[in-house]
Amino acid sequence: MASAHRAHGHVTFLGAGPGDPGLLTLRAVEALAGADVLIAEPDVLDVVRAHTRADVAVWDATQGAPGPSAVTAVPAVNGASKTAVTPVLRDTANLVMEAVKGGRRVVRAVVGDPGLDTCAAEEMLACAAGGVPFEVVPGIATAVGVPAYAGVPLRDAEGADVRFIDAATAPQRCWTEVGASDGTVVVSATLDTVAGAAAELVAAGRKPDTPLTVTVAGTTTRQRTWGATLGTIAQVFKQAKVLPSADGGRPVIAVVGERSATARRDQLSWFESKPLFGWKVLVPRTKEQAASLSDQLRSYGAVPHEVPTIAVEPPRTPQQMERAVKGLVTGRYEWIAFTSVNAVKAVREKFEEYGLDARAFAGIKVAAVGEQTAAALVAFGVKPDLVPSGEQSAAGLLEDWPPYDPVFDPIDRVFLPRADIATETLVAGLIELGWEVDDVTAYRTVRASPPPAQTREAIKGGGFDAVLFTSSSTVRNLVGIAGKPHAVTVIACIGPATAKTAEEHGLRVDVMAPEPSVLRLAEALADFGAERRAAAVEAGDPVTRPSERRPGARRRRS
Predict the structure, then answer these.
(1) pTM for this one?
(2) Does residue 46 sit in the same domain as residue 59?
(3) What are the φ/ψ torsions at residue 425 (nearest 5 degrees)?
């Protein structure tokens, strides 16, 4: 059985959901990790590509099977390049059969759920006819997932009937049937055709005052929902200048019905009412440093954009670091204190260079400033003995640091691996507590290269809604490599010193963290966004992002 399986290959028909990458199932992620070939439309690639191997072959389902002499490179999420090809037009069933040759494992990813995709059904039949084993990994159907994100439950406590209809392919009898019922109707359409679909329902018997919601780009941070009735949707679009437009062919999901809770969407719209929904937030840190911060921003509905402002390089003279690490092993130190993730990384790299691991920390007390620093140590296999109970800073660490006691502390020396530009606060405080300190330059921080021209233009032109500054150096370096953020951009700073630097550079500080923590900084920005949104709703004004208020923004968007 196994040899036959290898000879024929294997195909997984996988539902990628309606657009939010977080809606992929665990089984989908597992299947993607084992794929030799990934076949998908371009929009789906953005959802699934992060879960594939670096060497997976990526085939564009909109263009067909690859030709033999048109190999190109497709950028990969994790830095490696993926081999893809410029295809020759062919139908997708033949494309799947071509991909599976040689016993390859193929993942055919589709939007929503494969069971609702007509192309997937034809491709499954082709596999069955060709003796190719296949499986189906269901996904969240677009017609179900989008209303959920729009705050429109499809059924009520009385169990209303729900009908699904595709405006592009539905025969007249379908319109007649749904028009004669009083159940909920979910219509798949486009911005150009949704008003015509509403007119079809009215002509089929639905009342013109029947509530209707229309959602575009559902489950993504570009999602937007309009509420109207069957009779007014065309006028609502006209007033909002939605149609005619260059993107009128964009797919939408419309929900029609008295019992679908469309009238209560203002109470149930959990996704679009997130405090930072759709905000493009600049995070001046590397992807490694910004991982947890960016995840937190996404939970508030924001779209984080990492721009490194500092590059980390080894010290110019590594001998000092080498002596300190050897002293760590030979028992020279009672404590080692890490004040940043980069310090942990620098020591870990030196350990690996010498063939050491976390066991070398045996008998040494370890201190860490900040949740991310502590997490980096745990990932290394070291559990910190001391983390500040209050403020996550050098001052907070000193408040909890014990004074040197010659009775209980056999060694009076502390190893402090830090950046070349670190302040002397911690060193001075430890000496005052009676400790000897080896203040060692573990790494150098230099200004990063400028970001791409498009990013620089967005920073200076008001294309970002907010920027998070996590240190004074991020302020200085961002302004130095990219220019000063536009006046409409919300400036959020981690503490008073960073805020002072921002003001010295002519920036208006709008948000400051209640304590020096990147997570509390993100919380403070979310609170600011929530207050701003609530004020707009109370005043009866449209809820807009800061970048939409820059001069000419509305004109360019329409």
Answers:
(1) 0.76
(2) yes
(3) -55, -50
